[in-house]
């Protein structure tokens, strides 16, 4: 399964495992399976196919006699609508009962489930998986981002250095593709996050290749599929803008031309995507109003963000109106994003970019208005891409991010795939990634952390050695925290399944999970900010010396 | 790393819990109910459900032990009267019971792997490699066997558990603990009597290599060396297992009743779907001769031949002579005889013993009466062990594994499972091709599949158009109404050609291997 020996064949095996796992999860129930009258996201997607297939485009976002917006009204940007239109036509071709206007509401059947699941798998196969693949290939080619040292060297003697690098590419791709959170939400719960996230990943890959125009187009596609893509907008904006600012080796004119071309390509992309909606200003406003619904409140259900957790102490909904709350959220989010965005604006470097994407999406998840628990995926996928650089914290984050969606998954009856995929993912990570556990064991004897060898040879001062021990001790503590925390996750999982909560607190366990995850996310947010702002500048100073 | 792999594959098995399950699910639920709620005297007499208990007593006890846990999941499933009962908790319990008892299979695999790495039979530069060593490849080939995953975890059976005991028994004999090997095989026979097919190999090997003292390879039979004590020990071990198993029914005076349940000779020559064996080729030859005969007007007034189909299990031969159970029995016996003779004359070579097991399983698969397609696993699983040691057997393994697993496709006919079975077989086969090729340092050939020659490659790749025809072209052309059994027939005939080719090639290989071969550096 994780064969390292024959480099040529690994991509095939990786692809097959990724597809197999996805389709196996598809066997399980989807959200709202057999639960009238509202069903769940599965029905929402089906309903959108029905609406876009049968109604003229100008009615899609309007409440009409044929289109009841209160019943899963379309509230995603036009690309989602176009995608639904295509799927709707396919559904109509396969079995017209799937998408008959009005009478198909709540339609469920074996064949329909296969059709819906297949559409998600096809989207993954053609968008998300190639994007991830491309991203790691780009990383391999760019010399500045070396990840090889963190992944175990298998059979070093028989591999050339180049092949070894490719090995890490395969494994990194594999680990990203089997991240449980996205699989569970897209193929279990039922959504098409892979499309939007795939476009974002492709945009990041394009940036690594320094094809900035392509990156802008891809990113525009992403946010026009799901407005949650905006969580990543600030880093993209700041990075591209930062690259246009005049510097020592770049004239003002060149920067201005670059800015102009970037700006125009974004406007053109938006124009093309929104073209059918531009005929009428009211229509445009209605769509925008549907995309950003102020009326729906600051959060729904239990979300692991700051507002939901503080809500236990301070009842925001009683103190503030929705508009006030939105303003508060806006200010808080802006403050949270500011450090990382300013950093990437002033020092636009590629190796920092991914961190700033993580920081921005986490800030939005923690502080912004109208957040869903599923939105954590928009932070998790950049973290999954970052995993080869810092395996342990990223792995930790990814496990917690999946855990934070547990109440939702339990509601959908996805407990078994949740456990199976989390264990599958964890074992895969432990088998492929070197956490330095062996170094820790050998440490008292060897006394030479790998990678620090050259430094130690240069100066044998005891102070210097102490400075090298310190990260190791920190790492040891970190590992301890990691395992304790994972144990706590398992305990909470068991409790939410097996223990019935006291009658006066029916939401006890979801709330505990929210608190627990939120605390982690805040710490991770601080950590990734620290890494972005201090760590890389520090290492670059060392290099310049 | 071994247990990590076991856990990884168990996770995939967990994901398969809600997949389609066949009537075997109800069969085993019924047995749980029978063993739990009835006294022993009624076990082989109960006939409320049509799925009466037709496995030997130890398997009944196995079901009894499972039922002790089942009551914590859903007590309703333990009622004999609740026919076709499949509540979510019942499904969960039954699926979990298969996944958990697969630990026996994992243990058998572990024993074989540790034997492989400690015996020194397989010299390779790859032993230092974490994932590329022979033991690592063997473990993934066995644990991730696509056929077992399909038959046990989708279709629903306990083959992993049973084959695990076979692996333990084989490992014990390889290690030289013949008595332990015999004991485990005795247990296995009392769990599922289909393993009787490989009993001749056990009998000959144990008699020749254990009961004769001082046997070494190549020595001629010296009757003075026959050790009565060893023979008695062996007999004692085996009979005591049988006594524990059948003893209670002897006391209850129910032995004939039990045997009538175990050996029902009411079924037809071929299963509803023809297993890819000799009789499939025989049937198709008959069919073609009939069609040709009618075309040329040689035969007239024959009834339209009854084709293989869901309810009709009988196939009336028109031209070729009818096949009786006696014929199949004689054919099977004749087919394994040369192998047994060879085994008799090569004592002390446990690898020949494993080869003989494979040939016994294969012979009974080729010529047996009412063979199930699942029986092909009994050939593939022991062959996996040989495949990581000898290149020739690796070449035959990749062919048989691909064809054999493909021939299991008709078992899973539901739409949701279609991608799963394809992915499982693709995954297992591509893993086997890639890793066995790199294990034996096969140079890449642009036109052939690794390890196979041109003709074999064409044959194996021919499965792709066959699959596409059955699943895309055939329904699109609307042939399903005119020729409803065409896909099943094509699959079984196409696979039968591969299995027969394998059987002949492997037989030839076994008969011509020199006796000292196993001592040479395996390469």
Automatic annotation (TrEMBL), chain A:
It is a multi-pass membrane protein. Keywords: Endoplasmic reticulum, Glycosyltransferase, Membrane, Transferase, Transmembrane, Transmembrane helix. One of its GO terms (molecular function) is dolichyl pyrophosphate Man9GlcNAc2 alpha-1,3-glucosyltransferase activity. It is an enzyme of class 2 (transferase). The keyword Repeat does not apply. Pathway: Protein modification; protein glycosylation. Pfam families: Alg6_Alg8 (PF03155). The chain crosses the membrane at residues 12-30, 114-136, 167-185, 228-245, 257-277, 353-371, 377-403, 415-437, 478-499, 511-530. The keyword Iron does not apply. Its EC number is 2.4.1.-. This is Alpha-1,3-glucosyltransferase. It comes from the Eukaryota. GO terms for cellular component: endoplasmic reticulum membrane. Belongs to the ALG6/ALG8 glucosyltransferase family. Its main location: endoplasmic reticulum. It is found in: Endoplasmic reticulum membrane. Coiled coil: none annotated.
Automatic annotation (TrEMBL), chain B:
Coiled coil: none annotated. GO terms for biological process: protein N-linked glycosylation. The lineage of its organism: Eukaryota, Metazoa, Ecdysozoa, Arthropoda, Hexapoda. Its EC number is 2.4.1.-. The chain crosses the membrane at residues 129-149, 161-188, 194-213, 234-255, 327-345, 352-369, 375-390, 397-416, 422-440, 447-469, 485-504. This is Alpha-1,3-glucosyltransferase. It comes from Cryptotermes secundus. It is found in: Endoplasmic reticulum membrane. It comes from the Eukaryota. Residues 1-22 form the signal peptide. Belongs to the ALG6/ALG8 glucosyltransferase family. It is a multi-pass membrane protein. The gene is ALG8. GO terms for molecular function: dolichyl pyrophosphate Glc1Man9GlcNAc2 alpha-1,3-glucosyltransferase activity. InterPro entries: Glyco_trans_ALG6/ALG8. Pathway: Protein modification; protein glycosylation. One of its GO terms (cellular component) is endoplasmic reticulum membrane. PANTHER family: DOLICHYL GLYCOSYLTRANSFERASE, DOLICHYL PYROPHOSPHATE GLC1MAN9GLCNAC2 ALPHA-1,3-GLUCOSYLTRANSFERASE-RELATED. Its main location: endoplasmic reticulum. Pfam families: Alg6_Alg8. The keyword Phosphoprotein does not apply. Keywords: Endoplasmic reticulum, Glycosyltransferase, Membrane, Signal, Transferase, Transmembrane, Transmembrane helix.
């Amino acid at each position: 399964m994780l064969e390292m020996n024959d480099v040529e064949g690994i991509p095939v095996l990786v692809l097959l495992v990724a597809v197999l796992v996805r389709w196996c999860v598809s066997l399980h129930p989807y959200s709202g399976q057999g639960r009238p009258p509202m069903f769940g996201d599965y029905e929402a997607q089906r309903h959108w196919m029905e609406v876009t297939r049968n109604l003229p485009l100008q009615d899609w976002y309007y409440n009409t006699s044929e289109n009841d917006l209160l019943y899963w009204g379309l509230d995603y940007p036009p690309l989602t609508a176009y995608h639904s239109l295509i799927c709707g036509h396919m559904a109509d071709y396969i079995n017209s009962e799937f998408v008959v206007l009005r009478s198909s509401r709540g339609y469920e059947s074996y064949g329909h489930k296969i059709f819906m699941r297949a559409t998600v798998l096809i989207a993954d196969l053609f968008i998300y998986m190639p994007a991830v693949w491309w991203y790691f290939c780009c990383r391999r080619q760019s010399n500045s981002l070396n990840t090889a040292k963190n992944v175990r060297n298998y059979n070093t003697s028989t591999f050339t250095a180049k092949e070894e690098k490719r090995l890490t590419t395969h494994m990194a791709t594999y680990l990203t593709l089997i991240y449980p959170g996205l699989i569970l939400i897209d193929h279990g719960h039922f959504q098409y996050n892979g499309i939007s996230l795939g476009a974002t990943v492709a945009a990041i890959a394009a940036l690594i290749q320094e094809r900035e125009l392509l990156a802008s187009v891809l990113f525009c596609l992403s946010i026009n599929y799901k407005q949650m893509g905006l969580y990543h907008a600030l880093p993209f904006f700041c990075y591209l803008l930062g690259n246009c600012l005049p510097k020592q080796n770049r004239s003002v004119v060149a920067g201005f031309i670059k800015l102009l071309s970037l700006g125009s390509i974004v406007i053109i992309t938006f124009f093309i995507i929104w073209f059918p909606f531009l005929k009428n200003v009211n229509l445009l406003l209605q769509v925008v109003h549907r995309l950003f619904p102020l009326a729906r409140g600051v959060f729904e259900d239990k979300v692991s963000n700051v507002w939901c957790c503080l809500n236990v102490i301070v009842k925001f909904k009683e103190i503030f109106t929705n508009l006030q709350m939105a303003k508060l959220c806006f200010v808080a989010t802006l403050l949270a994003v500011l450090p990382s965005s300013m950093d990437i604006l002033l020092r636009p470097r590629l190796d920092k970019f991914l961190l700033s994407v993580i920081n921005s999406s986490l800030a939005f998840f923690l502080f912004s208005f109208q957040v869903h628990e599923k939105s954590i995926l928009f932070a998790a996928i950049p973290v999954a891409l970052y995993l080869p650089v810092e395996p342990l914290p990223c792995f930790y984050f990814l496990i917690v991010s999946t855990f934070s969606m547990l109440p939702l998954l339990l509601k959908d009856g996805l407990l078994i795939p949740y456990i199976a995929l989390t264990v599958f993912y964890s074992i895969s990570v432990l088998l492929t990634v070197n956490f330095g556990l062996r170094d820790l064991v050998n440490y008292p004897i060897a006394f030479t952390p790998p990678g620090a060898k050259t430094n130690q040879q240069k100066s044998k001062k005891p102070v210097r050695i102490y400075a090298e021990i310190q990260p190791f001790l920190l790492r040891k503590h970190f590992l301890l925290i990691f395992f304790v925390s994972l144990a706590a996750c398992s305990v909470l999982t068991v409790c939410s399944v097996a223990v019935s909560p006291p009658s006066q607190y029916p939401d006890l366990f979801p709330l505990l999970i929210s608190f627990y995850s939120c605390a982690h996310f805040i710490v991770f947010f601080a950590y990734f900010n620290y890494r972005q702002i201090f760590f890389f500048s520090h290492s670059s100073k060392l290099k310049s010396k | 790393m071994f247990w990590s792999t076991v856990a990884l594959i168990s996770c995939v098995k967990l994901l398969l819990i809600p997949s389609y399950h066949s009537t075997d699910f109800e069969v085993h639920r019924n047995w749980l109910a029978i063993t739990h709620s009835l006294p022993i005297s009624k076990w082989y007499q109960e006939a409320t459900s049509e799925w009466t208990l037709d496995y030997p007593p130890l398997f009944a006890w196995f079901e009894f032990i499972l039922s002790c846990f089942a009551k914590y999941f859903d007590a309703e499933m333990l009622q004999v009267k609740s026919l076709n009962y499949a509540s979510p908790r019942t499904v969960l319990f039954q699926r979990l019971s298969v996944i958990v008892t697969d630990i026996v299979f994992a243990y058998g695999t572990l024993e074989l792997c540790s034997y492989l790495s400690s015996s020194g039979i397989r010299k390779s530069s790859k032993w230092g490699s974490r994932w590329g060593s022979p033991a690592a490849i063997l473990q993934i080939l066995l644990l991730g066997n696509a056929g077992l995953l399909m038959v046990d975890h989708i279709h629903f059976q306990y083959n992993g558990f049973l084959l695990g005991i076979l692996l333990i028994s084989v490992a014990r004999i390889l290690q030289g603990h013949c008595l332990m090997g015999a004991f485990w095989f005795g247990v296995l026979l009392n769990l599922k009597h289909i393993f009787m097919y490989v009993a001749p190999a056990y009998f000959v090997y144990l008699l020749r290599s254990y009961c004769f003292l001082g046997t070494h390879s190549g020595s001629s039979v010296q009757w003075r060396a026959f050790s009565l004590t060893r023979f008695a020990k062996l007999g004692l071990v085996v009979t005591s297992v049988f006594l524990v198993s059948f003893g209670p029914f002897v006391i209850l005076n129910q032995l004939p009743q039990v045997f009538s349940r175990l050996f029902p000779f009411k079924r037809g020559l071929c299963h509803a779907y023809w297993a890819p064996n000799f009789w499939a080729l025989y049937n198709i030859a008959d069919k073609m001769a009939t069609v040709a005969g009618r075309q040329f007007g040689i035969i007239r007034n024959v009834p339209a031949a009854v084709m293989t189909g869901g309810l009709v299990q009988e196939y009336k031969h028109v031209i070729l002579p009818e096949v009786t159970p006696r014929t199949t029995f004689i054919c099977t016996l004749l087919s394994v005889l040369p192998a047994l003779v060879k085994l008799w004359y090569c004592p002390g070579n446990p690898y020949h013993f494993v080869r003989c097991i494979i040939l016994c399983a294969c012979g009974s698969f080729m010529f047996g009466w009412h063979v199930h397609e699942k029986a092909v696993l009994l050939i593939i699983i022991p062959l996996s062990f040989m495949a990581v040691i000898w290149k020739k057997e690796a070449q035959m393994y990749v062919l048989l594994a691909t064809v054999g697993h493909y021939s299991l496709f008709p078992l899973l006919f539901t739409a949701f499972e279609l991608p799963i079975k394809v992915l499982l077989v693709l995954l297992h086969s591509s893993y086997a091709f890639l890793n066995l090729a790199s294990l034996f340092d096969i140079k890449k050939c642009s036109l052939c599949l690794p390890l196979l020659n041109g003709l074999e490659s064409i044959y194996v790749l021919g499965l792709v158009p066959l699959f596409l025809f059955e699943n895309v072209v055939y329904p699109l052309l609307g042939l399903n109404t005119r020729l409803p059994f065409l896909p099943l027939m094509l699959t079984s005939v196409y696979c039968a050609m591969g299995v027969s080719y394998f059987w002949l090639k492997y037989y030839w290989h076994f008969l011509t291997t020199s006796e000292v071969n196993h001592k040479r550096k395996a390469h």
